[in-house]
């Protein structure tokens, strides 16, 4: 992905090949009030770490084809590649095949025409994951670690989201595997929603914590867990309650900038439909009572923002670029699929959010440090420079089989990542 992720520094795992990555420089001291901070994003070969990326699968698959996945490679130096394909990536052998498919799909060093915000990727490092099922074996975890390319395992509750029908039905069946993951220092990435039809859609994450995640953390406190694309204060509070360095979370641009009104304004808006779903205005952006809660506990290190707990490195949050490039036809049909395509504009949107929060100095850690640190990967060293330069998001992106509608389609954004990299 094109931006780095945040977390806490962790030594590189001896079995993990060190991919190139992304980072962000703090604002440079200058007499000019308009000097802007610089992002360290994987150079034309890098993608950010710890992201939510769907880069393959072909056809109607919700991940789209490897060709559309190259958007991540052009904008980031590395990415964690999610495994919910058809069929799912349940074995190390399949993960290696999928990785090869992605590498073959990468362009030879140039981005698409007329897209000035893409970085040209010279080498993209896909970080592979395995799809956890009731039948995954501890031996598969050992094989994954030994491969040097599998960096995590993804838990999808069966039926919770796109292509999750083969997911976990009973976390108890997975305990031998999870114990092996502790031994192998391999993180568990969690789509944290229950699928009980009696639970309100907007309460699925809270109930998941109560029923599944909290008991799991109590039983296996050394298991490293990433709560993917969190949307509620309940999740933030849970992370705070856990031992530092063992539970982290990703936050997407859409869950920071949109609330559930975006689904219905001016008619039904299928391109704003994702899972977990957008929340109320007062809970979505983690705004409710955030400022007072944070300031009361961290008076010596605040920046006056309602997003403080999300941005502060202590809580192990990092960006999640949801690269879910569903074809326009699949999003607009009678039963459209979930997912928002944010990769092309994610850096611009995160810069907007952090600027509005008065926290541009926190963006470096969020985008570039926290993720690699949590996964035990080296931080990326190449940097890109985001500048205040208005540009318009294209209405659609065309690929071999159709069109993809991006987040904030047709809107004008103020931040533009430069196509020049720095060492």
Automatic annotation (TrEMBL):
Location of region: Disordered: 1-72
EC number(s) from the headed UniProt entry: 3.5.2.3
Gene3D superfamilies: Metal-dependent hydrolases (3.20.20.140)
Superkingdom of source: Eukaryota
Pathway given in the UniProt record: Pyrimidine metabolism; UMP biosynthesis via de novo pathway; (S)-dihydroorotate from bicarbonate: step 3/3
Gene Ontology CC entries for this record: cytoplasm
Signal peptide extent: none
Single annotated GO MF: dihydroorotase activity
Polar residues compositional bias, start-end: 1-10
Domain Amidohydrolase-related per the UniProt entry, residue ranges: 72-395
Biological process, per Gene Ontology: 'de novo' pyrimidine nucleobase biosynthetic process; 'de novo' UMP biosynthetic process; pyrimidine nucleotide biosynthetic process
InterPro entries for this protein: Amidohydro-rel, DHOdimr, Metal_Hydrolase
Name the UniProt record assigns to this protein: dihydroorotase
């Amino acid at each position: 992905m094109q931006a780095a992720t945040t977390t806490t520094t962790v030594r590189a795992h001896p079995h993990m090949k060190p991919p190139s990555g992304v980072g962000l420089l703090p604002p440079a001291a200058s007499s000019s009030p308009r000097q802007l901070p610089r992002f360290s994003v994987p150079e034309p070969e890098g993608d950010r770490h710890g992201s939510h990326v769907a880069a393959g699968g072909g056809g109607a698959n919700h991940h789209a084809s490897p060709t559309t996945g190259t958007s991540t490679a052009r904008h980031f130096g590395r990415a964690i590649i999610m495994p919910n394909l058809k069929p799912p990536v349940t074995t190390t052998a399949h993960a290696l095949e999928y990785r090869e498919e992605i590498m073959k799909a990468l362009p030879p060093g140039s981005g698409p025409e007329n897209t000035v915000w893409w970085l040209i990727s010279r080498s993209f490092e896909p970080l592979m994951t395995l799809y956890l099922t009731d039948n995954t074996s501890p031996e598969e975890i050992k094989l994954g670690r030994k491969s040097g390319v599998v960096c995590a395992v993804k838990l999808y509750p069966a039926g919770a989201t796109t292509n999750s029908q083969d997911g976990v039905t009973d976390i108890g069946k997975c305990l031998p595997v999870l114990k092996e993951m502790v031994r192998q220092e391999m993180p568990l990435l969690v789509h944290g929603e229950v699928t009980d039809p009696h639970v309100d859609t907007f309460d699925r994450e809270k109930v998941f914590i109560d029923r599944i995640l909290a008991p799991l953390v109590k039983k296996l406190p050394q298991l490293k867990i990433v709560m993917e694309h969190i949307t509620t204060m309940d999740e933030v509070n849970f992370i705070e309650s856990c031992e530092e360095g063992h539970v982290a979370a990703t936050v997407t641009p859409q869950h920071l900038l949109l609330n559930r009104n975006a689904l219905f304004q001016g008619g039904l808006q299928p391109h704003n439909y994702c899972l977990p779903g957008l929340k109320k205005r007062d809970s979505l952006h983690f705004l409710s009572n955030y400022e007072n809660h944070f300031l009361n506990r961290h008076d010596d290190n605040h920046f006056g923002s309602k997003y403080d707990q999300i941005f502060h490195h202590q809580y192990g949050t990092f960006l999640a670029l949801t690269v879910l490039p569903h074809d326009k036809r699949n999003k607009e049909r009678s039963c459209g699929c979930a997912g928002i395509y944010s990769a092309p504009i994610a850096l611009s949107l995160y810069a907007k959010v952090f600027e509005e929060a008065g926290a541009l100095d926190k963006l470096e850690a969020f985008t570039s440090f926290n993720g690699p640190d949590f996964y035990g990967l080296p931080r990326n060293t190449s940097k890109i420079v985001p500048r205040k330069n208005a540009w318009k998001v294209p209405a659609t992106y065309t690929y071999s089989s159709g069109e993809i509608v991006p987040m904030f389609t047709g809107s004008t954004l103020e931040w533009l990542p430069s196509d020049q990299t720095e060492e």
